Amino acid sequence: MIERVSFTNFKSLRKAEIALGRFMVIVGPNGSGKTSILDGLHYLAQITRSSLPMVMNGAFGPLNLMSRNTTGPMAMMLSGRFQGVIAGVEIVVVRGGEPSDTGFVPDWEATVVERWGKTRHSQSFIDRMGDIENPLDPTTDLADLLALGYTLGSTRKLRQDVEKLAAASYSDEEVPRLGVDGEGLATILADLAGRSPETLQSIQDAARQVIPTLERIRTRRAKVTRRVEQEIRIDDSPMMHAVERHYWGQQLVLDFKGAPDVPAPLASEGTLLVIGLLTALWTEPRPRLLLLDDIDKALHPRAQGELVAQLRKVLAMDPELQILATSHSPYLLDHFEPEEVLVTALRPDGSTACAPLTEHPDFERWKSTTRTGELWSFVGEDWVTKQANDATDRP
After folding, report:
1. The AAA+ ATPase domain covers which part of the protein (predicted)?
2. Of the residues 34, 104, 105, 337, which has the maximum number of CB atoms within 10 A of its CB?
3. Which residues contact 211 (CB under 8 A, 6 or more apart)?
4. 338 & 357 share domain
């Protein structure tokens, strides 16, 4: 389990150190850095398991992730207990490097710490994109990063898309896997019906607790159309041509009380999001760290509480699972202990301040008379920036 994570100059997290538990929810105004915390953890997980050049490309390249109007390096560090061993990893991105046709290529410096505070073995290196032919080769300096990445286990940041969840799907894999956007849900559920019906039953039972009108989750055969690139030759010159191919796949169908045989595209957004989330948690390989943005999205207040209850049941069954989510709902917070809530706020300079709800100056006075959601609704977030400013002003 990741117990602590710190960020320096990562997006709006110019200086943030955060203690984590097994099930935490982050609250705060829009644009206050909640999603940045999830992105930072996801980025750390990727960078310990993947080639640095692969992670550097695209929208999630270091240039876009570094805090604006700052001059120092971008640094991220996490530590925790993994299979009983205290371990950690630190990644530092140094500004500098050389220009290229696609823009600036920064220098990378990374440190791996395998036993934090006891025997400390660390490795540092600077890697320019393209310098290493195969960064995951065990003979390179990235070998320890790769090993630690597997120790950390899988991390999934779900960005479920309702249209992808509802769509008919097809897979030619022996064991299909659910996409982080929910793609392939119908195929996964159809596979479970034949290969592991008890798992499908568990998903259905949990979903029925959250959506009481739901009676049954099933699938039926459906035609799936895919566009694929096919090479053709014109005057001996190869050209790529897009063609449509048709496959027989699966369509998700839901039976509700008084309304059986409802195709997934006609079901509610909240219903599909719940089924997708539960499927991601109940199918293998199960993530060790699950990152959820807007966990309460499209859910009735009562359904929010039931969803939290179902997630706690999964956590009780899987001691290696850790869940970090964001929310805007005080109703959802009523199902969390104050110790499980982090509050974010934006300073005037655009940087994020973050503190546990338990650090509010009057928490001890109010904790026995208010529920967690009521407390957050009452105290808001301004105290977080004031507390951070007071800490900065102290000699």
Report:
1. 20-346
2. 34
3. 270, 271, 274, 303
4. yes
Q: 175 with 264, same domain?
A: yes
149 shares its domain with 164: no
Count of domains for the chain = 2
Say yes or no: 218 and 134 in one domain: no
**Predicted confidence (pLDDT) per residue in 287-333, tens digit:** 889 999 999 999 999 999 999 999 999 999 998 899 999 999 999 99
**Cα distance between residue 90 and residue 209, in whole Å:** 41
3-state helix, strand, coil in the chain (%, to 5): 35, 35, 35
Please state the pTM of the whole predicted model.
Answer: 0.83
Q: Which domain holds residue 60?
A: 2-154+325-393
Residues with Cβ within 8 Å of 319's Cβ and at least 6 positions away in sequence, in order, are none
CA atoms within 13 A on the CB side of 283: 28
Same domain, 356 and 274: no
CB atoms near residue 231 (< 10 Å): 8
Helix (H, G, I), strand (E, B) or coil at 180: coil
| Dihedral of alpha carbons 139, 156, 186, 190, sign | positive
SS (H, E, C) 344-385: EEECCCCCEEEEEHHHCCCHHHHCCCCCHHHHHHHHCCHHHH
DSSP conformational letter for 268: -
Last residue of one domain, picked from the residues 251, 267, 284: 284
Residues paired with residue 251 on neighbouring β-strands, in sequence order? 220
The reply to whether 28 and 78 lie within a common domain is: yes
Separation between Cα atoms, residue 148 and residue 150, nearest integer Å: 5
CB atoms within 10 A of CB 236: 5
Q: Which of 2-16, 46-60, 366-380 has the lowest mean pLDDT?
A: 46-60
Diameter over CA atoms, the chain: 83
